[in-house]
Amino acid sequence: TVRNNNSSRFVKWLNFHTQDGRLVGCEVQQYLLEDTRICSVAKGERSYHIFFQLLQARQSPLLKDLELEGPESYAYTRCGELTVPGIDDLQAFEELKEALDALGIGKSTQAQMWQILSAVLWLGNCR
């Protein structure tokens, strides 16, 4: 957002698991609060970071088959700011992949995620 670059469009619910009074686990659920942000953004803002991260990583062998173009090519990304000072979208994408790996989310599931995000971007260009 214009005010900050964090995930303020989400709320997180923490469900702590205890056994014999000791913490044994935790589940984190995120809820999207602002789904309209995909189609339109306020002046000075940009759409979801993941779109820009994906597009900056488009030359990766992992994403080549998606035939993605730069952020100026998509209605959902060109309507706002293409870059944000202090944010490296390519690095953030690499960190996201590492986090998904650490969580045990398989490569095939990750590939499906990138395909869905790509499809959302392409569908935004349909008129």
Q: Give the class from helix and strand content and strand pairing.
A: alpha+beta
How many helical elements? 4
Order of helices and strands: EEHHHH
The helix content, as a percent range, equals 25-40%
The whole-number mean of residue pLDDT values reads: 85
Oligomer: single chain
Low-confidence stretches: none
Backbone CA Rg? 17 Å
The spatial strand order of the largest sheet comes to 1-2
Question: What is the 3D form?
Answer: globular
The largest sheet, given as strand count, sense and whether it forms a barrel, is: 2 strands, antiparallel
Roughly what fraction of the amino acids lie in strands?
15-25%
Q: What's the number of extended β-strand segments?
A: 2
Provide structural commentary.
This protein is an alpha+beta fold. Helix content is 34%, strand content 17%. A hairpin with a 2-residue loop joins strand 1 and strand 2. The protein is globular and about 55 Å long.
Give the helices and strands, then pairings.
Blueprint: E1 10-19, E2 22-32, H1 49-56, H2 75-78, H3 89-102, H4 107-123
Antiparallel strand pairs: 1-2
Helix pairs in contact: 1-3
What key attributes describe this structure?
two-stranded antiparallel sheet; alpha+beta; 127 residues; 2 strands; 4 helices
Give me a quick take on this structure.
It is built from 4 helices and 2 strands; from the N terminus they run E-E-H-H-H-H.
